[in-house]
């Protein structure tokens, strides 16, 4: 496949370019940046043939098969729609759009055009999360009763920028992190939250956006989910706990881009450390995307997954701002 990068981003440089190139003869052939000089420098640094400042010109390349969108959040919708009109498959960063209606429109447009559309929810691609899901599905902890996810980090200075001060670009910890947690919870429980309560705050980094949020979600089955996300916790670590009638899964340092962490199964028989495949999360996701383009299976996280995680994140924000319990609006999907 031949890929184009819409956005000369840090995540593309650190993770996605390598993931694309890990598949034999696949190539990253172009990059788009609103700053032409930066785009050329980025292309040179990463060995990319073409740099563009005009999206339509980039999409006019008939050799281009797919695009990876990693611009600021408010740009995802128009850029994805342009790529779909140009007949390109789309892998889009989360959240898909600023609102659920736009996300639904993107996914429907791709479906009608016969194109693969996926959301780059990387956590569900981790070997750790695969074994957690397998344990739950196998009934190793009995009936699930509650889930706790804590994903409180310190946002690195090079990643701060618009994430901590620009609500119009989709900044804030909920859009950046809680949206991933929503997808991960859905991946493990095979259901989506009905409603949420939440409190949000700016505790040190946030300037006009929240940098800390705690929320509780009610699932259709009755399972309760507690979620804590933050940009201001340098030593908190991350983790996931799923508690059931017959046992608990305790996973530490698994809410990360790296294939690290430890998964424990705790039952009446004691504590078992569960081994997992330390695979590259991003390469695994790209591999499933390629298979979907070839007509074999579906992406790791498709467009509907992206819509649902966005809807949960937006409900958390609304609940935090209003102090009211908010029903999650999935846009009719």
Automatic annotation (TrEMBL):
Database matches in InterPro entries: Gfo/Idh/MocA-like_OxRdtase_N (IPR000683), Gfo/Idh/MocA_oxidrdct_glycsds (IPR050463), GFO_IDH_MocA-like_dom (IPR055170), NAD(P)-bd_dom_sf (IPR036291)
Keyword entries, A-Z: Oxidoreductase
Record-annotated Gfo/Idh/MocA-like oxidoreductase N-terminal domain positions: 2-121
Pfam families assigned to the protein according to its UniProt record, in alphabetical order: GFO_IDH_MocA, GFO_IDH_MocA_C3
SUPFAM superfamilies cross-referenced by the UniProt entry: Glyceraldehyde-3-phosphate dehydrogenase-like, C-terminal domain, NAD(P)-binding Rossmann-fold domains
Domain GFO/IDH/MocA-like oxidoreductase as annotated: residue spans: 130-249
GO molecular function list: nucleotide binding; oxidoreductase activity
Protein name: Gfo/Idh/MocA family oxidoreductase
